[in-house]
Amino acid sequence: MRSARAALCALLMVTFGGWPTAGQDPDGHPKVAQALELARVWLEAQRAYTGSYASTFSRTETAIVAWDDGLAMLPVPTTDPMGSLARFRKTGEHTFRRVRDDGALGEPIVFEMGPDGKALRYVQHSNPYERRR
After folding, report:
1. Domain boundaries along the sequence of the chain
2. Contact (Cβ atoms closer than 8 angstroms) between residue 20 and residue 30
3. What share of the chain is helix, strand, coil (3-state, %, to 5)?
4. Quick one: which of 128, 98, 97 has its CA closest to 112?
5. Do the beta carbons of residue 53 and residue 130 sit within 8 Å?
6. Per-residue pLDDT reduced to its tens digit, 23-43
7. Which of 41, 66, 113, 128 would staple 46 via disulfide (CB 3.0–4.6 Å)?
8. CATH for 48-131, among 1.10.10, 2.40.128, 1.25.40, 1.10.287?
């Protein structure tokens, strides 16, 4: 593979079926355009939620990032990023639930959206976290 884009294309083609024939450029394969469009739409949707959020009651900060098929939450600062990471899967409109170690879904976080389509805050355990950036 000659680029990260080509590697992504190959991964998406395997996922969605189809592989370029011998001598065919992976970037020109019809499945690649479809897969890249799906990836673009997914990333755009996740950007509405990603950012830095601050607790209004404990002065802690949390980073929300796109992760796998949902989001991940990371308290900032932390000395153990992977140990502190909590993954969330989308379960409804602007609602995500924590994925527990055994794969079961845990407590929800619900995002409140602004007029621009981006999250203003999220609520977890009845506690609001305001978006900072």
Report:
1. 4-45, 48-131
2. no
3. 30, 40, 35
4. 128
5. yes
6. 455 556 666 666 677 777 666
7. 66
8. 2.40.128
